[in-house]
Amino acid sequence: MVSVPSVKLNSGKSIPVIGLGVWETAQDVAGTIVSKALDVGYRHVDSAACYYNEQEVCEGIASWLKKNPSAKREEIFYTTKIWDPEHGYEKTKKAIEESLEKAKSIDYIDLILVHSPQSDDERRHGTWIALQEAVDSGKVKSIGVSNYGVKHLKELLAYPDLKYRPTINQIELHPWLARPDLVEFCQKERIEIEAYSPLAHGQRVNDPKLDYFAKKYNKTNAQILIAWSLARGFIVLPKTATESRLLPNLQSIDVKLDDEDVKTLNSWDEHLVTGWDPLDYPLDSEKKA
């Protein structure tokens, strides 16, 4: 079984540096793939309300813990997210309650993220207040954001009632989408970066330029891409619902890229967005301009 190290968040909680993403993982297979992932060494699973598999993912974790009584709930890190239509204080409070109900089999949620900034200034603020209250309740351990640009983070960090800083910003990252300015800002503010779609949705996984590195390190192209995120200091979320890919993705932890190779991969940046890109979503002041 592969052992994955963790990093400490600004909340004081620790998060494994490789997690299993379950976007588009069907409800009828989510629990099984999560259990299989835990078997091979994953201790971090990333879901969201709009993935419609929160309950199945949590039940997969609970089932695995029951089958492995020596393992502890505290060893597993579970993330979910608040979808944009649920922004605003009251709506977010209800959404948190619904996510906690779906997670009752594992007792609490390790991390809740604001899924994107796509609402408005007032509702984003209300959402953060509700998330802070959830942390105070003890049922949510850490809070953060996803798909936030620098301007959205600056807005959040300037809230007059800010009690808990965002622990994480989860964004699409890979060598063709390096986002250097945003990465630098997050690192300066002690906000950990989580890289989703580290394989660029498969669009460049067969790029011949990757073959050189795969041969040099005797690894697959996918493992090189995951290793790049790790070398950059990111937490990385390779998504798969295919059991045979679980272990190889996790074994990327053993790939130690040379500094020069990391620089070469960095140089491929062309701002290739392969999913969605709400990082430039306008603030209210920009909408009125």
UniProtKB/TrEMBL annotation:
Gene3D superfamilies listed in its UniProt record: NADP-dependent oxidoreductase domain (3.20.20.100)
Its Enzyme Commission number?
1.1.1.358
Give the Gene Ontology MF terms in alphabetical order. Answer: 2-dehydropantolactone reductase (A-specific) activity
Q: What class of enzyme is it?
A: oxidoreductase
Q: Which CDD domains match?
A: AKR_AKR1-5-like (cd19071)
Gene Ontology terms: biological process: ketone metabolic process
Q: Which residues form the active site?
A: 51
Keywords for the protein's UniProt record, in alphabetical order? Oxidoreductase
Specify the superkingdom: Eukaryota
NADP-dependent oxidoreductase domain boundaries: 18-268
In chain numbering, where does the site feature Lowers pKa of active site Tyr fall? 81
Per its UniProt record, what Pfam families does this chain match? Aldo_ket_red
Instruction: Extract the InterPro entries matched here.
Output: AKR, Aldo/ket_reductase_CS, NAD(P)_OxRdtase_dom_sf, NADP_OxRdtase_dom
Residues the record lists as binding substrate: 115
What catalytic activity does the UniProt entry give for this protein? (R)-pantolactone + NADP(+) = 2-dehydropantolactone + NADPH + H(+); isatin + NADPH + H(+) = 3-hydroxyindolin-2-one + NADP(+)
Protein name, per record: 2-dehydropantolactone reductase
